[in-house]
Design goal:
This protein is mainly alpha-helical and about 110 residues long. The protein has five helices and two strands; from the N terminus they run H-H-E-H-H-E-H.
């Protein structure tokens, strides 16, 4: 399932997409299948299937999902947010831990 295409969503951020916005586009946060949605999203971005997202995979994946180009600085900032072990890539565990934490925060604040 593709993310909801939205042209207006990040106008207020001057065109810079952040991770929460990416998630909001890609995942229906109120779904009980959030873990499945996260796994599907990860698989779609992880082109070589090695369960680790490189800078390039994240960049391509975000651009493909949001329909907007993303620059290297934004990708680096995103990796810094997610990369727990500091290897410069985002493993499946790092991705899901962060996603599920961020999603539960988003759900709590939406109530």
């Amino acid at each position: 399932s593709k993310c909801k295409q939205s042209s207006g969503i990040n106008a207020e951020y001057g065109g810079i997409i952040d991770f929460n916005e990416f998630l909001a586009l890609c995942i229906d946060i109120n779904t009980s299948d959030s873990e499945k949605a996260v796994a599907t999203l990860f698989k779609a971005v992880d082109k070589d299937g090695n369960r680790s997202l490189t800078h390039q995979e994240l960049r391509d994946g975000i651009a493909a999902y949001t329909g907007k180009p993303i620059d290297d600085k934004e990708v680096s900032a995103l990796i810094k947010q997610l990369d727990i072990d500091g290897d410069g890539e985002v493993s499946y565990e790092e991705f899901t831990n962060n996603l599920l934490v961020k999603m539960s925060v988003a759900v709590k604040s939406a109530k």
